[in-house]
Amino acid sequence: MMSLFEIAINAIDEYNKKDPNIEAENGINYPKEYLNSLRQSKWLEKLSPKASEALRIAARCQHIGRWEIGRDNYPPTRTGYLQWRTDLGKYHAEKSGHILQSLGFDNEIIDRVKQLNLKKNIKLDPEAQTIEDMLCLVFLEFQVEDFAKEHDKEKMLNIIQKTWKKMGEKGRAEALKITYSPSVISLLKEALAL
To answer: Would you place residue 102 in the very low, low, confident or very high pLDDT band (cuts 50, 70, 90)?
Structure first.
């Protein structure tokens, strides 16, 4: 019989499997946010093998339903981007809270997962910093290459510097272990003065 935690992870996975956007990994097609949630959990395991139940749930549902609020619904400006990210965070928190409530989780865990979804007090809350590190590591390992194809060099240097600034020491140490393409290595060296 599955534990309540396993039921929650299964419910989150089933929701993210509805993502119509597909991404391939190792020749297998996955719904994009389902694949991202697997990657997030994998990085969390590396960063914090003894993570709390709330942190493990928050890692899995960090971008739940992300495809339902499109970036194109907001102005193509920095302000529009920031509003989109804020609205997404609130949406992920509410969506995860609703799922956990429907499964019978107590309010303490629901509130903690929602707080971690919103990434409150990153530099003061070690679990929130772990969530931020996990997301940055997923970006660096799986997405930075595609970003580099879509943005000019100056924009990429800025993105990498902002990513690095958000990360804690543990996340940065893991980021330096990732195998990057030569073009990304060049960007990292320039952006971070490595």
So the answer is: very high
